[in-house]
Amino acid sequence: MDSTNLKLNELEVFVAVAESSSFSIAAEVKDLTPPVVSRTIKALEDKLATTLFNRTTRQVSLTDEGRWLLQSARNILEEHQKISPHFQRLKSEVSGDITVDAATPFALHAITPLLAELKKIQPQLRINLISNEKRTEFLESGVDVAIRIGALPDSTMRARKLGTTCRGLYASPEYLNRFGRPATIQDLTHHHKLGFSEFEQLNRWPVKLDSDEQYHPKLLSTTSNSGETLKQMAKNHLGIVCVSRFTAKHDVEHGFLEPVLQSEWFDEHIPIYAVFYSGKYQSIRIRTFIDFVADNIQF
Length: 299
Fold this sequence. Notes:
Blueprint: H1 8-20, H2 23-30, H3 34-48, E1 53-55, E2 60-62, H4 64-91, E3 96-102, H5 104-121, E4 125-131, H6 138-141, E5 145-149, E6 158-165, E7 167-171, H7 173-179, E8 194-196, E9 205-208, E10 214-215, E11 222-224, H8 227-235, E12 241-244, H9 245-253, E13 258-259, E14 270-276, H10 284-296
Parallel strand pairs: 3-4, 3-5, 8-11
Antiparallel strand pairs: 1-2, 5-14, 6-14, 7-12, 7-13, 9-10
Helix pairs in contact: 1-2, 1-3, 1-4, 2-3
């Protein structure tokens, strides 16, 4: 085995074959002849002393070793693609338009605070920030980057993890002074609860009952499809709300909201991703935006 002499072009050809499940299609994609593709894969297998593909007359599929290498090769090639743009950014300004889609709370509390500094560094980068409560279709809306919170169902997209968020329960001091501060989870039964009208999974709060089941309020006094709107309702004394902690931090610090049952909270560590089409990651504008957000965002 001579894995120390792997070449980037071999990994690129391997990924092309793996993603297309075809030597001939991979040859077209890489502008090579099929025999060159076959020889490249054979040389790679010889270096690794393993079989990467199961080959039949009609089908090409990855072996277990091939599936492992595919993930590793993608990571290596992605890291390699970052090198030139990194130094290009040091020497030149980035210009042009980029459209970013994010839920309203994230757009307000996580992205907007970063834009002034980003504009200082890249004054020619024009950002169109769309605040949207629903998942936007990229191709239909012209979105370049979408911020997604939670599991990613679409494997055709590429994503970069920005961090994680946890939720908490909050109410205004005026509401709690009027209706009392819950001492146990069971006390929530007697309170006004605010919740989501369209995203039922968000109505499962990060506290657990004695049965170890996550608390799921059955009767909501007021609902909205927007987390930011629900938080404003709580600030205006309508009840108890469950929102991401980073969106409530400022209001807690300034006395507009108060944590409820904080000792009962558990940390969900919900992942947050910047999602984009893999072909677009070549764009210096998109790479610049994602790198800046990943390096500077605070939850």
